[in-house]
Amino acid sequence: MKPIVDVLNEETQTSLLDAGAPGEMLDVDGTYAPLAPTTLQECGVHVDVLLNLALKLAYTVPRFNTEWAARKLCLPGAIVGELLDELRSDQLLEVLGQSGPFSFYYAITNGGRERARRLLEISGYVGPAPVSLEAYRDDLEFQFQRLPEVAPPQVQQAIAEMVLPDDVAHVAGLAIMARRSLFLYGPPGNGKTTLGFLLHHAVQGELWIPQCIGVDNNIIRVFDPQVHEPISGELPAHLRHRIDQRWVRVKRPFIVVGGELTIEALDLIYSPAHGYYEAPLHFKANGGTFLLDDFGCQRVEPLELLNRWILPLERKIDYLTLQTGQQLEVPFRQMLIVSTNLDPEKVMSPAFLRRMGYRVFLDDPAPDVYAQIFQRYAARYNLEVPRPLIDELIERYRAEGRAMHSCEPRDLIERARDVCRYQGQPLEINAAILDLAWRGYFGNQDRR
Q1: CA 83 vs CA 87, 283, 413: distances in Å
Q2: Which stretches within 10-109 are classed as H helix?
Q3: Rounded Cα–Cα distance for residues 141 and 331 (Å)
Q4: Helix 77-89 and helix 66-73: axis angle, to 10°?
C-alpha cells in the first residue's frame, strides 16, 4: 500500500510520490486518497491470491483482454499484465492476439479451467482484488484522526430540529467532539434514535474503504452498497488512474441495528455458497456511527452482548474469528451509540457503564416543552396553532392519565393531515380535527 497523499494538487502529489516511501503516511492539506500500487509487492497481499483471482475471473468468460481484467480486478494494467503473463507461462491461459500497445486477448486453457474449478470450490469470490488488513488498519486510523473537528455551532445546527434541554445538548455535543461512545436512555418516544441520527451528521468528512480485505487466502467483503453511500465524480479524471481502485470513497457510514441483532452477527459471517466472509455491521461502521437501538430487546441476553463490547470500548480494537479458529485483530473506530427504554441499572453492568463515554437521559417533555415541539412541527406546514388549543390537548393527557412523549406532537399533526385529506379540505388544526387525530392515534376508548 502506497502512502495516502493529496490527490487534488497534481504538482504536490508528483513531488510526494518521488519522496515518499511505501507505507509512509504523509499529511497533506486537501483530499486524501490511497495511491495505486506500482508493483505486485505494493499490492500488499500474496501474489498467489492475485493469480488465483485472475484465473477465476478468466474462467467466467470465453475470452477477455488486459483492460477488462484490470477493471474487474481494480488493479493497474501493468500489474494485471504481469499476472496474466505468469498464468500464460504456466499454460493456464493462452494469448489469442494483441488488442492494443500493451494489451492482449486471452482465453483460459483446459488446464486453467480445471484449476479454476478447484479454486472456485474453495472460494467462489470473483471481483476486486483485496487489500491487506494492515493497509486497512493504517489507512483507517490515518483518516479517522483527520476527520474535521466538531464545534458547538455544528452540533447545535445538527440537532436544531429537536427541542432538548441545554444540558442534554451539551453532553451529546461533548460525546461527538471527543469521539467517545454515548449511552441514551429514557422512556420510549422521546427521540433517542432521532438524536443519534442527527448527531452523526454533526461530523463532516468522508472515507476511503476497501472493497474487500485479504487475510492469507481468505476474503472479507467490506464495502456494502446497502450501508455505504459512494461518492463519485468529484475527483479530476486525469488523477483517477493514480488512485487505488480497490478502495471506494464513501460518506461516513451510519448503521442502525435493533432487536434483530444476534451475538453471531457481531463476528465474521461465512457464506459456504460463496466461499468468502462478510464483515459484521459494526466493522462496516468504522469511521462513522453505529447505533445499537432498543438495547435489551435483542435475541441475546443483555449481559452477553455487553461483555462482547467491553474490550472494544476500552482498547479501540476488536477480534474477529475465521472458520479455522484464527483470530484477527481489527480496528474498532466508530461512534458507538446505545439507546434503551429500560432502566440501565437493571440491564447494564457497572463495568460496561464505566466504559461508555457519556450518558444522556431523555425524559418525557414538560407541558411547555411539549407545546414548543407541537408548534415547531406545525410550522413545517405553515400552520399556527393557538396555545389554548395545545393547552386543551395537554389537559386531555392529564385527564386520561397518559404520559406525554416527544414524538406525539408530530404523530398527531400527521394524523390531522390525514383527516383533512380524507375530508377533502385544506389543512388546518382545530379542536374537532385534533379530536379525530387523537382517537385515531390512541384508540376510540375514552379513558376519562
Answers
A1: 6, 31, 63
A2: 10-19, 47-59, 66-73, 77-89
A3: 8
A4: 110
76 closest CA partner among 42, 125, 112 = 42
Residue pair 256/293 in contact by the 8 Å Cβ criterion:
yes
Could you please state the CATH topology (level 3) that the domain comprising 133-145+200-361 is classified under.
Rossmann fold (3.40.50)
Condensed to tens digits (0 to 9), the pLDDT of residues 13-36 reads 333 333 333 333 333 335 678 889
- State how far the Cα of 357 lies from the Cα of 176, in Å rounded to an integer: 10
Fold of 46-129: Arc Repressor Mutant, subunit A (1.10.10)
Scanning the structure block, which residue is given the C-alpha cell 502512502?
3
Question: 32 pairs with which residues across the strands?
Answer: 6
User: Within a 13 Å sphere around the CA of 396, how many CA atoms are in the beta-carbon half?
Assistant: 13
138 contacts 44 by C-beta, under 8 angstroms: no
Please tell me the pTM assigned to this model.
0.84
Domains of the chain by residue range: 46-129, 133-145+200-361, 367-442
pLDDT tens track for 82-136: 999 999 999 999 999 988 787 899 999 999 999 999 999 988 999 999 999 999 9
